[in-house]
Amino acid sequence: MTGSAPTRNLPEPTEISQPFWDATREQRLLLQRCPQCDRSVWYPRAVCPTCLGDALEWSEASGRGTVYAMSVHHRAPAAELADFVPYVVALVDLDEGVRLMTNVVGVEPDRVHIGQRVQATWEPLADGRQLLLFTPEDSGA
Amino acid sequence: MTYSLRGAAAIVGAADEVSPTGEIDLPLRALEARVIRAALADAGLTPSDVDGLCMCTGGTLMHSVELAEYLGIQPHWTDSTQIGGASYELFVEHASNAIAAGLCETVLIVYASTPRASRRRGGVGMGVLATPERLEWETPYGIFLPIGAYALAASRHMAQFGTTPEQLAQIAVDTRRWASMNDRAYARDPLTVDDVLGSGFVAEPLHKLEYCLVTDGAGAIVVTSAERARELAKPPVWVLGAASSHSHSMISQMPDLTTTPGVESGRRAFAMSGLTPSDIDVVELYDSFTITVLLALEDLGFCQKGEGGVFVADGRIGPGGELPGQTSGGGLSYTHPGAFGMFLLVEATRQLRGECGERQVPDARTAVAHGCGGVLSATSTVVFGSEEVL
Predict the structure, then answer these.
(1) Does residue B376 come out as left (phi exceeding 0), alpha (psi in the -120 to 50 range) or beta?
(2) Can you give the residue ranges of every domain in chain B?
(3) If 0-12 CB within 10 Å is exposed, 13-18 middle and 19+ buried, where does residue A68 land?
(4) With contact defined as beta carbons under 8 Å apart, do B291 and B153 qualify?
(5) Residue ranges of the domains in chain A?
(6) With contacts defined as CB-CB under 8 Å, which chain A residues touch B257?
(7) Contact B360/B347 with Cβ under 8 angstroms?
(8) Do B203 and A89 touch (CB under 8 A)?
(9) pLDDT digits (tens), chain B, 390 positions
(10) Hey, are the CB atoms on B142 and A84 less than 8 Å from each other?
(11) Which of A30, A83, B164, B356 has the smallest CB count inside 10 Å?
(12) Interchain CB distance below 8 Å, A100 and B135
């Protein structure tokens, strides 16, 4: 899934997630943080899922994390993703303490493993936004 | 825990409908009516005895309301809670509590789904998983649901505890051994671990023969009060304990991919029942995938966390094993119309009544039915016992 010719359906931003998607245009990864709980929040929400406080603040994340779980997919659920097969669907634990779904790219699928350190990389979407992906830290990507 | 519904209610009627071709080309309401008639006949009751109804599929929005109108039933207790495949165990929990509280006396729980027939007619499946959050934060990454979510959980279990592909494959093999003794099961040909490991992937590390079937099916059960249960012809299958829990909707939000909410539903259901896992004669665990069974065995306390692979490796849950599991042939080999929870209840009932013929677990007096819905999202656990353990 190296993504030179992006054909993915565009994810639909919401009023809540719009700042996240806007920042992707500059390849910046924004996470919400709850000042009361001092915890990062993923995915973007109207309220903190710990205290229900609504004073969430956006802050820039390191883009570094660790592969928590992974599955090499040999079949895509949608026609526009069929050319990417095989690809790695992964859950990555960001150093900021949240877990998100992503793809690990820029490496053969059989070289990806749980516990591996990864860093953010970006795939352009058709409307100028970019999709957050990850690649192994040592790949030089 | 001071409150317990132990012995307040029992399953007194059970029926299911499957097809040797996997396909049942009937209008859904006709199929529902067929299993309802069969379950009521099994109980020796009539539609006019029913004063509670549970249904969470088959309609448009108000599932129990729509079904009740169609059947001409006017219940004064109703439930259409939808927690995926675990909904049916939850319905037993809710119905038993309602009966214990005197809110109603006889509850009908119904399920029917014909994904195979509808696919042939051009229908599309799994639209229920297309939540706004999933569409925004998971779908762009091409996760093949629900298989991919369970594959992620399996990958984590393997990395964290050293669980092997062979151990997981053994679950599919043993489930097929049960199916081979059930002449109504869809897939009955013998299976080896090598067959499973050679069956290819949609989403690694789970092989295709570790995925449940997609077949049409339906089932219905009747739950009634202790008083009425004792008046009926067949032996009551007593509800000893029941509880439900859910921890997430999307797999990317699951707190720990090796631990399901079954820890909570299991702990509460067992506490009510007065039994422990070592007292259980037969388990009917939701087997959407092999990993679903392995996690349930651990989370319900049949073995320690992380030891599920070793626990199942020697055929322990197969015929003749120490803990017979998924004795109908399960979602892996019997039928799986999208939600298997109803069939767990039907099989537990038949086992405790001694109706299972070749696959009957000798002297089965206690059983657990454990449903799992969504992507390991929601669980519901029911502990059953025959008259001897009440």
Answers:
(1) left
(2) 9-120+212-389
(3) buried
(4) yes
(5) 18-139
(6) 68-69, 91
(7) no
(8) yes
(9) 467 899 999 999 999 999 999 999 999 999 999 999 999 999 999 999 999 999 999 999 999 999 999 999 999 999 999 999 999 999 999 999 999 999 999 999 999 999 998 888 776 555 667 899 999 999 999 999 999 999 999 999 999 999 999 999 999 999 999 999 999 999 999 999 999 999 999 999 999 999 999 999 999 999 999 999 999 999 999 999 999 999 999 999 999 999 999 999 999 999 999 999 999 999 999 999 999 999 999 999 999 999 999 999 999 999 999 999 999 999 999 999 999 999 999 999 999 999 999 999 999 999 999 999 999 999 999 999 999 999
(10) yes
(11) A83
(12) no
- The length of chain B is 390
ipTM of the prediction: 0.95
Report the distance separating Cα B138 and Cα B272, nearest Å: 38
Measured between CB atoms, does A70 come within 8 Å of chain B?
yes
**A90 bridge partner residues:** A70, A102
The structure tokens 């803990």 sit at: B323
State the DSSP string of B17-79: E--TTS---S-HHHHHHHHHHHHHHHHT--GGG--EEE--SSSSS-HHHHHHHHHT---SEEE
CA distance B307 to chain A (A): 19
| Fold entry, domain A18-139 | OB fold (Dihydrolipoamide Acetyltransferase, E2P) (2.40.50)
Which of B142, B115, B112, B110 has the alpha carbon at shortest distance from B126? B115
User: In the 8-state DSSP scheme, what is residue B289?
Assistant: B
Reduced 3-state DSSP string for A10-79: CCCCCCCCHHHHHHHCCCCCEEEEECCCCEEECCCCCCCCCCCCCCCEEEECCCEEEEEEEEEECCCCCH
Encoded tokens for B90: 């939850």
Contacts of B137 in chain A (CB under 8 A): 11, 43, 100-101
Q: Of B371, B350, B365, which is closest to residue B273 (Cα–Cα)?
A: B365
